[in-house]
Specification:
alpha/beta, seven-stranded mixed β-sheet, GMC_OxRdtase_N, steroid metabolism, 545 residues, cholesterol metabolism, isomerase, sterol metabolism, 23% helix
Length: 545
């Protein structure tokens, strides 16, 4: 027999879109329950290794699709636990993009000017701070020096990292042991808990059903804490309002699976997916040329050899974020640390005679890994991703005990998308191969297709019901009381890291959700200050007896 509870608000997912709404609604007096598919990890559980069962495999969800793979967070705090905390605001031209639909993609109510106050709110809450050049690690300095040598500009990126606590260990992608990275574990989530919200890890939502009074029932299964392929007890929670923030690779799957019970979903649910136009290049630097051409020295006679030292991306070149350029020719270039594992597998050798991602040449390339620099492109794409029929459970067919799955996403890059990738590839080579500094090759697409760590737009907001699943209040068209506040609501590629924009949109959505709750008889108000970062309450112990 399925156990049924009730609450005012049920939030699916504890990343930016879920944590922010959970905090404000709980602080306003609503009863809030947050269901998170992944585990609840604390700072001392963030491991500095790649072993199966470490935080690296427990906190990630890597889903391989047809032509596109998605790497995302799978833990309490969602993507904020595994992100690199680079938090720029989207360029002004992004909000005027036409993209594949040939007209403005964003709702008329949202521009850079109208979103700026919400950017400010998030920047205060995390907080986000500029970085000074003297705080930039070696890899960022190398990229900046190479840009200057090529006559290009580079800038320190705004960051949600407390550099006074950072050890430059470069393990922040597996979670930060030192609480230097300002994940949601340090602000919105403890704030929500302090106001009575419940957070339940290892609860995977399967589908939604609707009651005659317009409220909803959310059906879940409990996930095994060691083998994510195993599902235990099932249960359900009734809620007056449901906020879906499971991530761009899972939110449309949940809604598609719910269609048999809820009725027809908007056409745009599971369509118009964007990989944020992301592309990666690996540069292998010649240490002698770094010394002779750029004049760099770490102080011990070594010019660089510091790929592994730092804290992810700290320096970006925004020269091509120029609104006067044609669409699909605008992109940012960001120095990035991608740790050994997937990054070393997908890095290609130069001019391979056979497969580009393994073999003798690749083994030789791996010997020089300390002299690598990874450059991350975020460009404009055509929103060409489409989700097929959902799997029986979850967002993917689980292929391993943790982390790896095969999902229903299909992605075939258009000529427009390839134009942005080709231009940015050429730009990276122009900057980094000058005067023999480095050899640059893009990551291979042969093994898993394209890839993104910033999936967007699979359930997007907009003014046109034919091409958007949500109205500008983030409410699902035709299904009042269901709101979507994660990256899937963003209309398209942003050309920069999207976490701050996702967060600002979630902040903007809260007043409308409060009004919807009030209309359903819930005594809730809006106006809580920025969360103060109280300590977490003790994690719940799951009882599977």
């Amino acid at each position: 027999m399925t156990y049924v509870e009730s609450t005012d608000v049920l939030v699916i997912g504890s990343g930016f879109g879920g944590a922010i709404t959970a905090y404000h609604l709980a602080a306003g007096g609503a009863k809030v329950v947050v269901l998170e598919r992944g585990p609840w990890l604390e700072a001392d559980e963030f491991d500095h290794d790649f072993k199966l069962g470490s935080s690296y495999t427990r906190a990630f969800d890597f889903v391989v699709g047809d032509g596109m793979s998605i790497l995302g967070g799978n833990c309490v705090g969602g993507g904020s636990v595994v992100y690199f905390a680079t938090m720029p605001r989207a360029p002004r031209f992004v909000f005027e993009r036409h993209g594949s639909i040939g007209r403005r993609m964003w709702p008329a109510a949202i521009t850079r000017d109208t979103l700026d106050p919400w950017y400010d709110v998030v920047s205060e809450a995390l907080p986000i701070t500029p970085q000074r050049w003297e705080q930039i690690p070696y890899a960022g300095g190398l990229f900046a020096a190479a840009c200057a040598h090529a006559g290009r500009t580079a800038n320190p990126s705004p960051s949600a990292v407390d550099v006074s606590k950072c050890t430059n260990c470069n393990w922040m992608m597996a979670g930060c042991r030192f609480d230097a990275k300002r994940s949601l574990l340090l602000n919105y989530l403890p704030g929500a808990l302090a106001h009575g919200a419940q957070i339940r890890p290892l609860h995977e939502v399967q589908r939604l059903t609707r009651h005659d009074d317009g409220s909803y029932r959310v059906h879940y299964r409990v996930v095994d804490d060691e083998d994510y392929r195993i599902l235990h007890d099932e249960g359900a929670i009734d809620a007056k309002i449901v906020i879906v923030a499971a991530g761009s690779g899972a939110t449309p799957v949940i809604l598609q699976r719910s269609e048999a019970d809820l009725g027809t979903m908007p056409h745009a649910v599971g369509r118009y997916f964007s990989g944020n136009g992301e592309r990666l290049n690996t540069a292998i630097f010649n240490e002698d040329r770094v010394r002779d051409v750029l004049g760099l020295d770490r102080g011990d006679g070594v010019p660089y050899e510091a790929y592994q030292i730092g804290r992810g991306p700290t320096v970006a070149s925004w020269d091509k974020l120029d609104g006067s350029l044609p669409e699909y020719e605008r992109y940012s270039l960001e120095q990035l640390y991608f740790p050994p594992g997937l990054g070393t597998i997908l890095a290609q050798v130069k001019d391979p005679s056979a497969a580009s991602w393994f073999g003798v040449e690749k083994k030789e390339m791996l010997r020089t890994w300390k002299s690598w620099l990874t450059i991350f492109t975020m460009s404009e794409d055509d929103n060409e991703g489409v989700f097929g029929p959902p799997p029986e459970t979850g967002n993917a067919h689980r292929m391993s005990q943790q982390m790896l799955g095969h999902g229903p996403l299909s992605y075939k890059p258009t000529k427009n998308t390839w134009r942005g990738w080709d231009l940015s590839d050429a730009d990276v080579k122009d900057i980094l191969e000058r005067d023999g500094l480095a050899t640059v090759t893009p990551w291979t697409n042969d093994l898993i297709g394209a890839y993104t760590v910033h999936p967007l737009a699979s359930c997007r907001i907009g003014d046109d019901p034919a091409t958007s699943a949500l109205d500008d209040s983030h409410e699902l068209r035709g299904h009042p009381g269901i709101f979507v506040t994660d990256g899937s609501a963003v209309p398209g590629a942003l050309t920069v890291n999207p976490a701050l924009t996702i967060s600002a949109l979630a902040e903007r959505a809260v007043p409308g959700i409060v009004k919807a709750l009030q209309a359903r008889g819930v005594a809730v108000t809006y106006g809580a200050p920025s969360p103060t970062g109280q300590s977490f309450a003790r994690r719940p112990v799951l009882n599977r007896s």
